[in-house]
Design goal:
Largest sheet: 6 strands, parallel
Structural class: alpha/beta
CATH topology of the largest domain: Rossmann fold
Mean pLDDT: 96
Strand content: 5-15%
Shape: elongated
Order of helices and strands: EHEEEHEHEHHEHHEHHEEHHHHEHEEHH
Strand order of the largest sheet: 5-2-1-6-7-8
Helix content: 25-40%
Low-confidence stretches: none
Distance between the termini: 37 Å
Number of domains: 2
Radius of gyration: 25 Å
CATH class of the largest domain: Alpha Beta
Length: about 400
C-alpha cells in the first residue's frame, strides 16, 4: 500500500477548539485529510493561550493542530457565516465541539449545512450529548470522569474518588469521533448518504467500563475503587519494586508462569492461592510474597525482564516525562520529535496506529491565526480585493504569531 493516508482527498471544515474536537481532526489530518480550522476573533482557538508557551505559541496547540489551515473568520456575522457555508459546500466533513445549541444560534446547525451539502458527514462532540435531559449542562473532561463513574473507580476504598491525571475523556471522545467519521464516509461511498454523529464524552467513558455496569446489575459485584489493586483478579495491581512501582496483571492461565518466575513451585499447591477466588481472599499475603521476591532484584527493569522471560505481563510505572527515551515508542513513532520554528524541537505524541505502507502526516506546520485566509478563500472563488474588504470590515482577521 502506498499513499499519504486513508483520508487523502477528504476536506474537513473544523469549528472545534481545545481538545476533544481538535483531537478528532488531528487524526484526520495525520491520515491525509485537508483540514480548514475556523477560528473566531480576537485570539482564535483558546488553546493558543495554554502553557507551556514559547514566543506566543502553545505546545498544546502544536500537539493538536499540526497540519491544519487556519482561517480567522467571525462566522457569527452574516458575511462570516456565508463564508462558512461556502466552505462547507466544498467539504466532506464538519467537526464542532461547542455546547449544544451554539451552532444553531450561529445559523450553522446540521440542518443549515446539509442545505448546501446534502451528503455532509458532521460530528458534534459535547459533554452529555445533543439529546437527553442533561444535554445543555456545561461539561469539561473531569465532569465526564465524575458523571461516568470513572472517578468512583479511581483511588483507595477508604479515600475520596480521584481524577485521572490527563484529559482522557476529551481524548477518548476525539478518537470515537474519528472512528465514527471514517465509518460514515465508508457508508457514504456505498449509499451516497451523509450523517450527523453525536459524540458525548460521558458516553465514551461509560463505554470503557468492563464489569462496572453489568456485574452489579446481576447482583454479585459492587464496583469500588481498590487503590493499588485490580478488583476482579489477584495478583493484579501496583506492586513496590526495588526502585519504584511495578504493575502486574496475572490471569488464571498465567499464574503457573508467575510461580516459575518466582522459583516457587510450592505456591501452585498452596490452598491460599488455588484459584482466583482464593487468591482474592488472600490478596494481601500474596502481594507481600511478590514484593519480597521483587526486592531480591537490583532494578525494576531486571524484574520486568525476568517476568517477560516467563511470559508474565508486567511493566514499570513510567512517567510521561520519560516516554521519549524509550526506544520502542520512538521506533514505532508513538513519540515523535517535532521542530516548530517558534517553540523549537520537543517531544509530542505521534499517530496512535501503524498502517503498513502509509506514513502519517505528523510533521506538517502549525499555522498562526488566519495564516491561510487568502489561500482558503481563493479555493472558493474570493479574490484578493474581496479578502482585503472582509479584513477591513473585521470579518477576517489574522495574527503574525502564535
Amino acid at each position: 500500500m502506498t499513499g499519504n493516508g486513508f483520508l487523502e482527498g477528504i476536506r474537513v471544515v473544523d469549528f472545534s477548539q481545545y481538545l476533544a474536537g481538535p483531537a478528532c481532526t488531528r487524526l484526520m489530518v495525520e491520515q491525509g485529510a485537508e483540514c480548514i480550522k475556523l477560528e473566531l476573533p480576537d485570539h482564535g482557538d483558546p488553546s493558543r493561550a495554554l502553557q507551556p508557551r514559547i514566543q506566543r505559541r502553545s505546545a498544546f496547540l502544536i500537539q493538536q493542530n499540526r497540519g491544519k489551515q487556519s482561517l480567522g473568520v467571525d462566522f457569527r456575522t452574516d458575511e462570516g457565516r456565508q463564508i462558512a457555508l461556502e466552505l462547507v459546500a466544498t467539504a466532506d466533513v464538519v467537526v464542532e465541539n461547542f455546547s449544544p445549541g451554539v451552532m444553531a444560534r450561529y445559523g450553522l446547525a446540521y440542518e443549515d449545512l446539509v442545505a448546501v451539502k446534502p451528503d455532509l458527514v458532521m460530528v458534534s462532540v459535547s459533554g452529555f450529548g445533543q439529546s437527553g435531559p442533561l444535554s445543555d449542562r456545561p461539561a469539561f473532561d473531569f465532569i465526564a470522569q465524575g458523571f461516568s463513574g470513572m472517578a468512583h473507580m479511581t483511588g483507595f476504598p477508604d479515600g475520596p474518588p480521584l481524577l485521572v491525571g490527563s484529559a482522557y475523556a476529551d481524548a477518548s471522545a476525539g478518537i470515537h469521533a474519528f472512528s465514527a467519521v471514517g465509518h460514515a464516509l465508508f457508508r457514504r461511498e456505498r449509499t451516497g448518504e451523509g450523517a450527523f454523529i453525536d459524540v458525548a464524552m460521558v458516553d465514551c467513558l461509560i463505554h470503557m467500563h468492563e464489569t462496572g455496569i453489568h456485574a452489579p446489575s446481576l447482583g454479585d459485584y459492587t464496583p469500588l475503587r481498590q487503590g493499588r489493586d485490580y478488583q476482579p483478579i489477584s495478583p493484579a495491581g501496583v506492586f513496590a519494586g526495588p526502585e519504584g512501582w511495578i504493575i502486574l496483571i496475572v490471569t488464571a492461565n498465567q499464574v503457573e508462569n508467575l510461580w516459575r518466575a518466582m522459583d516457587r513451585p510450592d505456591l501452585a499447591e498452596d490452598p491460599r492461592f488455588l484459584g482466583n477466588t482464593a487468591r482474592l481472599e488472600n490478596r494481601a499475603e500474596l502481594s507481600a510474597l511478590i514484593e519480597t521476591w521483587m526486592a531480591t532484584f537490583e532494578t525494576d527493569d531486571a524484574v520486568i525482564d525476568h517476568l517477560a522471560e516467563h511470559r508474565v505481563p508486567g511493566t514499570r510505572v513510567n512517567s510521561p516525562a520519560d516516554l521519549d527515551s524509550i526506544p520502542h515508542l520512538v521506533e514505532r513513532g508513538t513519540i515523535i520529535t517535532y521542530d516548530d520554528p517558534l517553540v523549537g524541537p520537543a517531544s509530542y505524541p505521534g499517530h496512535p496506529f501503524v498502517v503498513q505502507g502509509l506514513e502519517p502526516n505528523v510533521h506538517a506546520p502549525v499555522e498562526s491565526v488566519g495564516w491561510s485566509n487568502g489561500s482558503v478563500l481563493a479555493s472558493i472563488g474570493y479574490d484578493a480585493d474581496r479578502v482585503d474588504e472582509l479584513t477591513s470590515a473585521g470579518v477576517l482577521f489574522s495574527k503574525p504569531h502564535g
